Amino acid sequence: MTRLISVITPAYAPLAEYFSQTIDSVLSQRLPEGWDIEWLVQEDGETPRLEAQLAGKRRVRYSANRAHTGIAATRNLALTRARGEFVQILDHDDVLLPDAFTKVLTAFEDDTVGWAVGQADDLLPDGTRRQYESALPFGKVRAGVVNDWAIEHGGNWPIHCAGLLMRTQLVRAFGGWGGSPVDDDIIMFSAISECVDGVNFPETTWLYRVHDRQTHKSAQWRERSRDGRQIALQRVEAIRAVGISVAGSLSAVPAESVTVGPAAKDDADGAAWWK
């Protein structure tokens, strides 16, 4: 039986000048035997314009918000459509290297591992790459270690959340991406990495594109970044105070999607829907 990875990409047409390279990188993946991917492209914005670039392409499942909902909501809407055991994060301007999954998937042979990540080089405007030394040792990262590091470094995380591969059920169990205008991925990851082990691989598996129109360089992001990171640290503090943990095997595959009917509270007759 083929096993499935759901690659989640929130896209936004006014900032999608590099999207064609992201498309090429996903469709060029060399996957281990017995694996396949579905690429869930979720376009934000009232006037979607990116569907044509994806038309007829294998593995792509496109949907549009038809409203401006922001990156967190866009990622969560894509998550509702995910059918894979694992979710891979990929922004619409970043690039997966051809063998991105070959090594990283081996982390999940250990059924106590909930997340994994490879290294990223910066992809600079002139097409060259810049390497970075990992802030954490390579290998298994015990639950809580990532957040200990973040607490000691002023609320800055040592794992790049834009390249994470995670168990889908864990992402859902922890509420998906945080409802914040910024750092929604850190808010989500801070909770997961507090409760389950992960693996930090030395192999470079993706490229983080550096350009002038990156979302985190916007005025709103700079203004709100402290808020997003504070929410993440408060979540860690709360998990530790309450004593939440995840025990046992994490290898359960996603269940069949439940069926959602019309909202009863919207019945035209105005009847009390809770009766």
> What's the CATH H-level superfamily name?
Spore Coat Polysaccharide Biosynthesis Protein SpsA, Chain A
What proportion of the residues is helical, as a percent range? 25-40%
What is the N-to-C succession of helices and strands? Answer: EHEHEHEEHEEEHEHHEH
Largest sheet features: 10 strands, mixed
What would CATH call the architecture?
A: Alpha-Beta Complex
Which regions are unreliable across 5 or more consecutive residues at pLDDT < 50?
none
Question: What's the number of helices?
Answer: 8
Topology, number of strands: 10
**Helix vs. strand class:** alpha/beta
SS strand fraction: 15-25%
Overall outline: globular
Radius of gyration, whole Å: 19 Å
Describe this entry's structure for a reader:
With 275 residues, the chain is α/β, with parallel strands linked by helices. The protein has 8 helices and 10 strands. Strands 1, 2, 3, 4, 5, 6, 7, 8, 9 and 10 form a 10-stranded mixed β-sheet that branches. α2 links the parallel β2 (35-44) and β3 (60-64). α7 packs parallel to α8.
